[in-house]
Amino acid sequence: MSAEATNPVSAAETAATDPRVRRRARARLDLRRIGRAALLGATAGPAPRDRLPDAISHVAEAHRAHHPEADLTVLRRAYVLAESSHRGQFRKSGEPYITHPLAVTLILAELGAETTTLTASLLHDTVEDTEVTLDQVRREFGDEVAYLVDGVTKVEKIDYGAAAEPETFRKMLVATGDDVRVMSIKLADRLHNMRTLGVMRPEKQARIAKVTRDVLIPLAERLGVQALKTELEDLVFAILHPEEYEATRALIADATGSGSPDALAAVAERVGAVLREADIAAEVLVRPRHFVSVHRVRLKRGELRGCDFGRLLVLVAEDADCYAVLGELHTCFTPLISEFKDFIAAPKFNLYQSLHTAIAAPDGAVAEVLIRTHRMHKVAEAGVVALGSPLATPPDTADPAENAEDGERTDPTRPGWLARLLDWQESAPDPDTFWSSLRADLAEDHEITVFRADGGTLGLPAGSSCVDAAYAQHGEAAHACLGARLNGRLAPLGTVLSDGDTVQLLLAQDAGSGPSPEWLDHARTPAARIAITAWLQAHPEAAAPPAAAPRPPLSVLADRSSGAELHADLDGAPAAPVRPAGCCTPVPPDAITGFRVRGGAVTAHRTGCPAVDVMRRLGRAAVPVRWGDAAHCRVTLVAESFGRPGLLADLTEVIATAGAEVVSATVEPPSEQRVRHTYTLQLADAAGLPALMRAMREVPGVYDVDRTHRL
């Protein structure tokens, strides 16, 4: 069965609606020639050694377009081995089986994959489905090709039953972690299978399409392989939502076949003229939206206009040219500032870089514009496939061994999300937990970057909290996390992080500390949720503390001796006792203001105390007060800290060492592992107060000490 026969629309319809799909349709039409060439090869024997077999000439052509100097000899040998080993095998469509590895290799060749990946792609089913052994592949093609073939082979043929899916994809991701080219081959393999899905029963088509939608498409997005992702989206869309697909196809056909002027092409012409006049070398292209993209825009905007069926793509040579183009467009057209995004200065988590903007032409047409370099465009389309071999020596590195640590394979193309995923999948207790966590992680389509206190960065899914940051940075050591400073200020662990935040995680010195069950309410990442759940299951006494009445604050009272001398100037009135206000506890040499209270006494407040403003608003007259000669004073200090054993003893020891007398002490019950200590102290000399406060702040676990400011 030909590949295009199973497409959602015919080749003629596709060519009439989407130029990009015309390019893909041309590749699919070649598959019929591949099948015929494979049949001829089966009867006439392998091709002569001095030329490539006709069946892969188109693969060689696509490969040479990206790698002009590539040695194609190894591809010929790989094809000969694959064709001979698969000879006599047929797909469910009736085509010779060799058409499948050839089609997968063609997809990767068009994306710009290097020769080793194409060689492994031709052989990716031989070890699993034929008598060819991995040792034979290693002898004939080397360790790297054998490694890739083995990585793909370890991902067993997927049984789409609920029990088999989790473990299958776990194996796939583990293999991908060592070399992303394994996943590249699997994605191309799935794309060709989706193209030819029409030979299967409708219920099986739907089941495969759902798995592709939930797992493979998000993985393609995270690897940056947009060319595969968009086609997979359209194929899944046609199977799972046939009515919406047909409506979208009709919209595209009407927009392109109505004979009306192409609004986007007209804007592109004006943009090109502006850039030529500014002497900026740029290529301006109209980039039609694929079916799913048009459907999303229609849901967002309602009725579609001419420019909504595509976007402008401006390609330049250098990064600086991107910003020069942006400046000209925003000068000569009306920009929609809300649509501007800079993914060059801050690349997306899947390596994507581009400037996004939208401009309004004089006639009111609004066009979205993508501005990028040619290399950015290659990476945007092919993602990690375009980055070549992860084991290749960088141009500025003479020794390949410098690319590895402790002899381990390293992969500079591995995105941060994949490294995180590989970490937490090892801790997943069972396949079902892994599967649910994986799907939740893949559902997050945005990532933020936060800065660590040591200058490093953390890549986290949007919506992550300080809890997620703690486990991303410290792993299981985050069990002892007591709190966080967010942008220099203390923040609860449940605080949601924003892109660009600076977070400092504060860990307890007690290694026995552990998370509370409430942390699960704030954890978004699988790594955090799995680690917290595992700890709580291992410590059931922490997960379910015995019910008890709320603890009253712990208070310690001592003899209340007098404070520093205070005097009030009452203009001939009888002398009145003057005492410091408990709300701000002024000490010499604070500036003070007095107010009369019941009983004829006067209370002295610090000038900046909130109570002073309240008294004045109530019309209370201020009474002049002043300090006497005595240096001793009484002050109330509040120490904010993280709870830990021995904290109260350490604080009181510091207070005693400073020569202060504790008049009263109150310790409030912990809240989110934070504790507030309130001390009323009698000091022999007010000049020693700053030193005492500094000493209290240096006690481990204490993050702030201040004088009271309460009404």
Question: Strand count, sense and closure of the main sheet?
Answer: 6 strands, mixed
Structural class label: alpha+beta
- Helix coverage percent: 40-55%
What sort of overall outline do the alpha carbons produce when their principal axes are compared? Answer: elongated
Give unreliable regions as ranges. Answer: 1-52, 158-164, 393-414, 545-549, 554-562
Gap from first CA to last CA: 83 Å
In DSSP terms (H or I, runs of 4 or more residues), the helix count works out at 27
Would you write up a description of this structure?
- Helix 5 (99-111) crosses helix 11, helix 6 packs across helix 9 (143-153) and helix 9 (143-153) packs across helix 11 (180-195).
- Helix content is 44%, strand content 16%.
- The model is unreliable at 1-52, 158-164, 393-414, 545-549 and 554-562 (pLDDT under 50).
- The strands form 5 sheets. Strands 1, 2, 3, 4, 5 and 6 form a 6-stranded mixed β-sheet that branches. A 5-stranded mixed β-sheet has the order 8-7-11-9-10, covered by helices on one side. The protein has a 5-stranded antiparallel β-sheet with strand order 12-20-21-19-22, with helices on one face.
- The longest helix is centred in the N-terminal third of the chain and has 26 residues, at 19-44.
- Strand 20 (661-667) and strand 21 form a beta hairpin.
- The termini are far apart.
- It is of the alpha+beta class and 711 residues long.
